[in-house]
Amino acid sequence: MVIGGGCYGTFYASQLAKAKARGKTEYRTVIVVDRNPGCQAKRELGEASDRQFAVSDWTSFFDGFMLDAVDDYVVPSPHMPHLMFEWVLRRARERWPARAVSVVPVPGEIPTPYDRASAGGDQTRYISWADWICPTHCIEPAQCPAIGAPRTWEMAETVTALAENLRAAGRPVNGPALFVCKHQVFGVGMFSAEAVRAGDRLVAAAGDAGAEAEVLIGTISSCHGALNLLQLGAQSSVIGRQSDD
To answer: Of 37, 95, 84, 116, which is closest to residue 217 (Cα–Cα)?
Structure first.
């Protein structure tokens, strides 16, 4: 599924169609999700036997789609909010309606040159190994095109080290649950829906004991990342864990 039918979504859907036509990839259907029925992708590309459009806001779409997705992949926009964390957060609040489920600032030192908190107050911490403007639609190859030298970093390792450091400092941090966007074909990066469900299962497991727990969750690529820390309050002995259904 391609998130957003604007300029980025149009480019990604177009590139996937070209890759399939040239035998470089195979897929059943590309679903472009946008609340605007006349979005750019619909106007310029239109529907096809293997391209559909879902007229929906992203929150409603994922609430109705994610649990039934089998081998599906998500193609995110570079500028979209941390949608998959928001889905996992909603799931946690549905699972434990009588339990404190909150989002707290991500603590700890991260050695990236770019490190900023969201201006929107949603506690998202944005980090990047790039202190330059990256090329549009960069596929993050081993040889970084921006600096003309080997890429010596991998964001998954950076976030994993952060979680380990937080645990060593006594924080009850689980994870990280990482939704890793990797280049697949013709400039299109994506992550699997199963990775998102695995993150949801990690949150469920972290809360099973009933004690206070935290889960570090990130949507990342090799160079960039959006991080959140989901915090579960201690479970009341009177209220049992709710069903995942």
So the answer is: 84
Instruction: DSSP letter for 244, please.
Output: -
Q: Residue 226 forms beta bridges with which residues?
A: 126, 219
How confident is residue 239, by pLDDT bands cut at 50, 70 and 90?
Answer: very low
H/E stretch holding 89 reads helix 83-95
Distance CA 77, CA 26 (A): 21
Question: Is-contact 197 66, C-beta < 8 A?
Answer: yes
In this prediction, residue 235 carries a pLDDT of 87
**Mean pLDDT for the chain overall:** 93
Q: Report whether pLDDT(168) > 90.
A: yes
Residue 227 contacts residue 106 (beta carbons within 8 Å): yes
Q: Average the pLDDT over each of 12-21, 113-122, 234-243 and give the range with the smallest value.
A: 234-243
As to burial, measured by CB atoms within 10 angstroms (0-12 exposed, 13-18 middle, 19+ buried), residue 165 is middle
- Bridge partners of 73, per DSSP, are 192
The pair of structure tokens assigned to 29 is 């259907």
Closest CA to 171 of 119, 220, 215, 113: 215
Residue 245 has pLDDT above 60, yes or no: no
- Residue 243: what pLDDT? 44
Position 71, amino acid: D
Residue of 182, 162, 195 lying closest to 222 (CA atoms): 182
CA–CA–CA angle 184, 157, 67 (5° rounding) = 55
C-beta separation of 32 from 67 below 8 A: no
Q: Residues in the chain, how many?
A: 245
